[in-house]
From TrEMBL:
This is Uracil-DNA glycosylase. HAMAP family: UDG. NCBIfam families: PRK05254.1-1, PRK05254.1-2, PRK05254.1-4, PRK05254.1-5, ung. It catalyses: Hydrolyzes single-stranded DNA or mismatched double-stranded DNA and polynucleotides, releasing free uracil. PANTHER family: URACIL-DNA GLYCOSYLASE. Residues 50-211 form the Uracil-DNA glycosylase-like domain. The gene is ung. It is found in: Cytoplasm. The active site is at residue 65.
Amino acid sequence: MDVTIEKSWKALLKHEFEKPYFKNLADFVKEEYKTNRCFPPGNLIFNAFNSCPFSALKVIIIGQDPYHGIGQANGLCFSVNDGNSFPPSLINIFKELNTDLNIPYPSSGNLESWAKHGVLLLNATLTVRAHKAGSHQNKGWEKFTDAVIRAISENSEHKIFLLWGGFAKKKAKLIDTNKHYILTSGHPSPLSANRGYWFGNKHFSKTNSLLEQADFQPIDWSLL
């Protein structure tokens, strides 16, 4: 696995790439991609970082695993490539976006424009075997992405972390709340959303209010 990653992230994480666990993880990922169909494509494994430089970072959204269906994953959490139908969680994200900010329902589920406006769409595990959810968990990715969250917390301020669901909320312990903001809610999955834990959280408008209070440009959440 070649670590082709945007230069500001490379500088921030250079010591992480040199650690034994990451070398073992890289060997595992190389072998998996050689012997199985895996997602996202190899050149998009670090797409979350390459689409949103550390120097431009404002907001962090934490997911769990890449989508494991053919052609879905593009290296950004909750995002799918153009031409794919929207997964249920993404549908609920767009419903909340429409209710919160009156942003029209988009035609594409590709969230790359959010990344380019300063949103890091970070999955805890960056790769997966086709049709096998969770197949690359506990191989080292979580250690790496926890280190990413810690590095953001330690080396910046006024960042906004959106922690959706129980898994993401566990990452709060890695974040210095004296320097950063955390917004939590239920997960946008139908199971959580239909129980009343997602809709109405207004995270998109709250995020922009916090950014404006800190004298930053708000995020353009539209995808048209």
